[in-house]
Amino acid sequence: MARTLNTTPRRITATLVYKYLQVAGHALVRQYGRQFLKMLLLLKTHTLPAMASSARAHTPSVTRLQLFIQEAETTNMRNLTTPEGRNY
Question: What is the pTM of this model?
C-alpha cells in the first residue's frame, strides 16, 4: 500500500486502492485502529488531489474512492465490514 501511495498516480491507482480498502479495510481497522485512519487522511489530502489533477486519471474510480473515504470518516470506519466469504 505504501509503495502504491508513494508513486506517481496512474489511471489504475484509484481502482487498486479502492478494491484493496474494500477487501482488507476491516482487517486494517482491527489491527491498526487510529493509525489506519491517519493513513486514510494522508490518502485524502495528498494522493487523491494528485489523482484528480491528472485529466487521464479522473475516472469514476477516483470518485468512488473519495466517497468511500468520506463515508469511512463520517461513520468512524464502521462501514468497513467483513467482506463476503470471510467468517472471522
Answer: 0.79
